[in-house]
Amino acid sequence: MTPTLPFQHIDKIEILRALPRVFRDTRPESEIWLTDLALSRPDYYMVEAESGTGKSSLCAYLYGSRTDYLGSILFNGTDASSLSLMQWQEIRRRHIAYLPQELDLFPELSALENIRIKNDLTGYADEAQIHSWLERIGLGDRKDFPVGKMSIGQQQRVAIIRSICQPFDFILLDEPVSHLDFRNNRIAAEIIEAEAQRNDASIIATSVGNKLSISSSKLLKL
């Protein structure tokens, strides 16, 4: 049984006076923490941060995998803290896609197997589309290779393809191209943007240096 959500799509995420609890005794200079910020679909956002300022925490809060923050996060006016586990599972399956910095790939499985695990849950892409993405991003001849034996840049590309194998209103990308060269960065950005446009969705990408080459993004300093 599909859990009932109080919205059909997430059109706006509000981050209201939020702050990681670990920073409770500080007053960071930030355009996100301790402010009232609205992220609206289908705009693109680049979150620029230094290490240790909470960019990965921000992504985890928006994805619901962590709740150790002060303040509030609202989806279309609904407080994220009021959502049940089953409602969060539906949000992660249909509304918010996520690429964590740690990638969370299964090293013993191939690139294709890692992607299929996600896609089998969502039924989003057909096999031809997945193979096309892998070819385009330069992994066509590596799709059956265990990801644990791939370079970190290759693993990032696998994780990027896996992240878009679902419908989404927002996609969270935590340092998605930190180990990619200019060419692969551009290709990855084009694939992500195409799927964002297909879903009329927002992109939220973080960076401590190498930025995802998306167009017309709004820059936020964390």
Explain what this protein looks like in three dimensions.
The chain has 222 residues and is α/β, with parallel strands linked by helices. It has a single domain (12-221), classed as P-loop containing nucleotide triphosphate hydrolases (Rossmann fold, 3-Layer(aba) Sandwich), CATH 3.40.50. Helix content is 32%, strand content 21%. It contains six helices and nine strands. Strands 6-7-8-3-9 form a five-stranded parallel β-sheet, with helices on both faces. It has a four-stranded antiparallel β-sheet with strand order 2-1-4-5, covered by helices on one side.
CATH H-level name... which superfamily?
Answer: P-loop containing nucleotide triphosphate hydrolases
The description of the largest β-sheet is: 5 strands, parallel
Level of helix content? Answer: 25-40%
SS strand fraction: 15-25%
Write out the strand line-up for the largest beta sheet, numbering strands in chain order: 6-7-8-3-9
CATH architecture label name: 3-Layer(aba) Sandwich
Key structural traits:
222 residues, alpha/beta, Rossmann fold, five-stranded parallel beta sheet, four-stranded antiparallel beta sheet, 32% helix
Summarize it:
32% of the residues lie in helices and 21% in strands. It is α/β, with parallel strands linked by helices and 222 residues long.
